[in-house]
Amino acid sequence: MYRTACPSCGAEVLFRSTISTIAVCEYCQSTVLRDANEVKDIGKIGRVLEDYSPIQIGTSGTFAKRNFTVVGRIQLHYEAGLWNEWYVMFDDGSGGWLADASGQYMFTLDIGPAKNATPFEQMRPEFRYEHAGRSFIATDVRTARCVGGQGELPFVVGEGYEAKVVDCRSGDRFLTIDYSDATPRLYAGSAVVLDELSCQLLRDGEQILQSAGKLKGANNVLDCPNCGSPLNYKAGVATQIVCPSCHSEVDCSGDRATVLAKHEDAQRYHASLDIGDKATIEGDNWWTIIGLIELEEVGDADSAWSEYLLYHAKKGFKWLVETSDGWFEATVLDKWPESWSENSVTLNKEQYRKLYPTYDARVTYAAGAFNWRVKVGDITTYREYERNGLRLSKESTLSEINWSQSRKLTRELVAQWFGKKEVVSTHYQGSNAAGSETDASTMKGMATLATIFLFLLNIPILLFGAFTFSGLIWMGLAWWLLQLPLKFNKDE
């Protein structure tokens, strides 16, 4: 460990790793460069936004049977949001990176130049990159800039540092091609779950809520810079806010809230749940709805659904989806399918069959807080597959791809989670809507009239014929058949 005084303020600066080039002074944010036997102040870097991440400087764990300690991080901002890159030091003195984006984690090691890499300007999602006998698929292509730094780092980085990166996946394997320098570099590793890393000194839920964001406390209240309406949000949990009053997109990742865009034409939502609703799911409370999106299929306004973003201080993020088919709980996949085509997908050696024709969906309403930028008018292409009640969904845009898995829920279970008597939407056809109740009432009336008609028709048989018993059977059978649609409608 190397100790020195900050050239700017005199505070002690630590270099834990022998390969660290710079360290950020904790007190004045000066970037301290270690060059041979001297240190230099090469300017200041922005403070990191304390967000939802449970990781902190000093967190330790094990990756690939090697012990590591987190010694630094940079925070990168791109058009749709920001993410953390944590720099770790292994016991043998080598370094690595633990990426932390929207509750997903990727551990990678620098393995040298990226051979035969396609020029960054030509890279697109779903391009293939061959490495170590495996075919990797480009999942997102983005240009980001450094907005904050902390602790020790292996190269000189300052505010305004630009990173051009392409992330690729193959099952649970993960690659990043970094085009920031003249020669692209390759970082290889895998998607990980923090529990698998046996991490120590993680921040707990209470610490996250107390320190997150620019203000203290679990919930912060900010006035919308456009209309002045109060915005309730989880500070640091999500930096992109859509005002429910004027539909302005507000970025809260900087020193002040900034209006990114205004959407006067956003439709009013028709969802069953609302922002701020709390749920107890599988014994964990509280999950809180922090964001709400409504979408419709392009070219079919009658095909619409709602997506709710839920946050839990310890568990992270979860999606709840309300559709005409019912309710679904969805999670973003850490491990991607082994292969996929237009008609089928293979995940964990199990084949899923295509459920619907490929379709595009447009965001028609958005409100609340998100960990990426959501805009009314955003269009995403969906491909859905199904196996034994489980669904896989591939969501594609011009810049990235995501896979998620969902399972169907009963409306009674959803109501139980949120402590409601029922969850009834008036927006979707065939989903317990008011129109469905009207249809049920009409059908019941028709069934009653039909039964009366059959009874009158069978009076002569009942009074004079020898077929009294068979007449009663036919009336009973007719009544039962006419009740079937009512039963099915009630069970949906």
From TrEMBL:
<keyword id="KW-1133">Transmembrane helix</keyword>
<feature type="domain" description="DUF4178">
    <location>
        <begin position="275"/>
        <end position="409"/>
    </location>
</feature>
<keyword id="KW-0812">Transmembrane</keyword>
<dbReference type="InterPro" id="IPR025235">
    <property type="entry name" value="DUF4178"/>
</dbReference>
<keyword id="KW-0472">Membrane</keyword>
<dbReference type="Pfam" id="PF13785">
    <property type="entry name" value="DUF4178"/>
</dbReference>
<protein>
    <submittedName>
        <fullName>DUF4178 domain-containing protein</fullName>
    </submittedName>
</protein>
<feature type="domain" description="DUF4178">
    <location>
        <begin position="56"/>
        <end position="191"/>
    </location>
</feature>
<feature type="transmembrane region" description="Helical">
    <location>
        <begin position="452"/>
        <end position="482"/>
    </location>
</feature>
